[in-house]
Write a structure and sequence with these properties.
Blueprint (H helix, E strand, L loop, with lengths): L7 E5 L2 E5 L1 H23 L7 H8 L5 H36 L11 H14 L8 H21 L6 H25 L2 H11 L8 H20 L1 H7 L3 H6 L4 H23 L5 H13 L4 H25 L8 H23 L4
Antiparallel strand pairs: 1-2
Helix pairs in contact: 1-2, 1-3, 1-13, 2-3, 3-8, 3-11, 3-12, 3-13, 4-5, 4-6, 4-7, 4-11, 5-6, 5-11, 6-7, 8-11, 8-13, 12-13, 13-14
Length: 351
């Protein structure tokens, strides 16, 4: 993978824009793949609908019965899958660039576990499944876990290996907390919470789409605007300070964006494993770049396509039984994670 991808600069008067053509081409191809995955996800089920009929329903030209199935029943779940993938892909790239460690991801260092613990506590201990209670708890849990993690890992700066080690410990403690909470509730509440823990999109409707869409629509463009700051942080704290960067403020701002994205993603679909980890890696390999302005949007598209395809596979492979999407993403991504871990050990990469 080349860190120096070919770049093109466009200038018009005082305005200047630099971009990598390969990243643009990859992004366009992934957009087509994502839309194709969405069409298949919406069209396949107990009642199969042809792709052309799906497109007609989406633009309001389909018959009433098809439009009801596509727009009211299936589209919200598919959109939640796409938006969760976007949020986790961008968040994972930010975490890895901030820590300068390719093995960092929110579901590895405990952020997703914090969101899960808070949400499961509401489901099991308070017997609450209200529309906004569980998502709100998950978002708060992710933020608290992130603050604790940062406080424990920071020692005159942020080192990638320290973040990983502290994060693994925090994740273990939170995982133990989740297990304890599950033992305290009624069987039905515990079963409901367990389905949520492994990552499931069953029953998602438009009430789950709008908060997720609003958050992604605000924070993803903001992350792209801060991509230049993220690129400076990749150089290390000392170099970034020498270039005039306010390291701690910029890092905290980017970290807050990533934490909120993880929180809303976990709130909408549970902790969908490995998506935030694998999407940035695939994006860097496809773009042959480590520039955040190229990697972030491609990671978002990779995450969206991955979650959508995993959801479709989970619904259809063993129909009428359904496999939660988090299990499917684990099956897809876990072997790749083990490969990267083995490769990092061989190369002596510690972050």
């Amino acid at each position: 993978m080349s860190a120096r991808a070919h770049k093109v600069a466009l200038r018009r008067g005082p305005l200047s824009l630099r971009f990598e053509p390969r990243a643009v081409v990859v992004g366009a191809a992934l957009t087509v793949a994502m839309l194709a995955a969405l069409t298949v996800d919406v069209g396949r089920g107990e009642l199969d609908i042809a792709p052309l009929d799906v497109l007609k329903a989406l633009v309001g030209a389909g018959d009433e019965a098809t439009s009801f199935v596509v727009v009211d029943l299936r589209l919200p779940r598919a959109l939640v899958a796409l938006l969760i993938g976007v949020a986790l892909g961008v968040a994972g790239a930010i975490f890895q660039d901030i820590s300068r460690n390719p093995l960092v991801a929110p579901d590895i260092i405990g952020v997703s576990h914090g969101a899960a613990l808070a949400a499961v506590s509401f489901i099991v201990l308070f017997d609450s499944t209200a529309t906004y209670a569980v998502p709100g708890a998950a978002l708060a849990g992710a933020l608290v876990a992130g603050v604790v993690l940062y406080a424990l890992a920071w020692r005159n700066g942020m080192q990638g290996y320290r973040l990983v080690l502290v994060g693994i410990g925090v994740a273990a403690v939170l995982q133990a907390g989740i297990a304890w909470v599950l033992t305290q509730g009624q069987v039905l509440d515990a079963a409901l919470a367990y389905i949520w823990i492994v990552g499931s999109l069953n029953g998602r409707d438009w009430d789950h789409v709008w908060p997720l869409l609003g958050t992604v629509a605000v924070l993803v463009p903001l992350a792209l605007l801060l991509a230049r700051q993220l690129q400076v942080l990749q150089l290390g704290d000392e170099v970034a300070r020498a270039l005039g960067a306010n390291v701690e403020r910029q890092r905290l701002g980017l970290l807050l964006i990533a934490l909120v994205l993880v929180g809303v993603a976990v709130a909408a679909g549970g902790p969908i494993a490995f998506t935030a980890f694998i999407a940035p890696h695939i994006a860097r390999r496809l773009t042959r770049s480590v520039t955040p302005l190229s990697v972030l949007p491609v990671a978002a598209l990779v995450g969206a396509t991955l979650v959508c395809v995993a959801d479709t596979a989970g619904r259809l492979l063993f129909s009428p039984d359904e496999i939660p999407v988090g299990i499917v993403t684990s099956i897809i991504a876990a072997p790749y994670f083990l490969y990267l871990l083995s490769r990092a050990n061989r190369l002596g990469v510690t972050g």
